[in-house]
Specification:
The protein has helices at about 15-25, 45-50, 65-75, 110-115, 130-140, 150-155, 195-205, 215-220, 225-230, 245-260, and strands at about 15, 35-40, 55-60, 80, 95-100, 125-130, 160-165, 170, 180-185. By secondary structure, the chain is of the alpha/beta class.
């Protein structure tokens, strides 16, 4: 391996060809698809995407040394953007991409939250790899310890399915933990929010005190807190992990109504 992976960029390159092939197959790539790959690294997954012959392949890679290698390896078969994914504006996502990504472990939830909270960003499908413990939070059920803010943000916009876990020995260098591949399919009908950032704001308020009853924060949000809790059908003695995604969205809707 000619590159020394950078810990600061969360670089762990997937090298198991059987797993790489399976990941690409999960996207059901057609000749009309436009593919976006986040963090292609040494291009191991990109090779299999190229073989699927989609209409367009764009990869976003922050590491300039890897960009030069990708240019040499793939020539004009792919378009390369040498930027940090977090610096890419919402205007870029106008092509209804199918997205593949072995997301950098240190910013994976930040990337996903940005995609979820931006109204302009639309996708066909996302096939994304996360640290297993992060994936467990994304797909967590209400009333479980893993249920969290990212569960709510992601499940507001997407139907999410676990595909499989991936063992550390499938990567170079070997991470200390397992990874998990998730498939995200955009929901046809979602509860519309006037300002999606309010979902981020309210979940942050509640989950900053996840072990405490919601009553105190509810009183801060609503003067008529008792009536609102009855309308939504939640108990003020509940903890944040007891409140479903749908009910969090109803809280946000009530909060937005109050602002008008």
């Amino acid at each position: 391996m000619q590159f020394k992976p950078k810990k600061s960029l969360g670089q762990n390159f997937l090298i198991d060809k059987n797993i790489l092939k399976k990941i690409v197959e999960k996207g059901n790539i057609s000749k009309n698809d436009k593919i976006l790959e986040i963090g292609p690294g040494t291009g191991n997954l990109t090779e299999f995407i190229v073989k699927s012959k989609p209409k367009l392949i764009i990869v976003i890679e922050k590491d300039f040394k890897l960009v030069k290698s990708l240019e040499s390896k793939f020539k004009k078969q792919i378009k390369i953007i040498n930027r940090d994914i977090l610096d890419i504006s919402e205007c870029f996502y106008k092509d209804d991409f199918k997205v593949y990504g072995n997301l950098p472990y240190n910013i994976s939830t930040q990337i996903l939250a940005f995609w979820c909270l931006n109204e302009r960003i639309k996708f066909k499908k996302l096939i994304l790899m996360f640290q297993k413990e992060v994936a467990d939070r994304i797909i967590a059920k209400v009333n479980t310890k893993n249920y969290s803010r990212i569960t709510i943000l992601a499940n507001w916009k997407f139907d999410i399915k676990k595909i499989f876990d991936i063992n550390p020995e499938c990567f170079f260098p070997r991470p200390k933990i397992k990874s998990t591949l998730l498939e995200f399919t955009p929901k046809q009908n979602i509860i519309n929010l006037k300002y999606p950032k309010n979902l981020e704001k309210i979940t942050k308020i509640f989950f900053n005190q996840r072990r405490k009853m919601i009553k105190k924060n509810f009183i801060k949000l609503f003067k008529n807190f008792d009536n609102i809790s009855k309308e939504i059908n939640i108990k003020l003695t509940d903890r944040p992990q007891n409140i479903s995604v749908e009910k969090f969205l109803m809280i946000v809707k009530k909060f937005e109504d109050k602002l008008n």
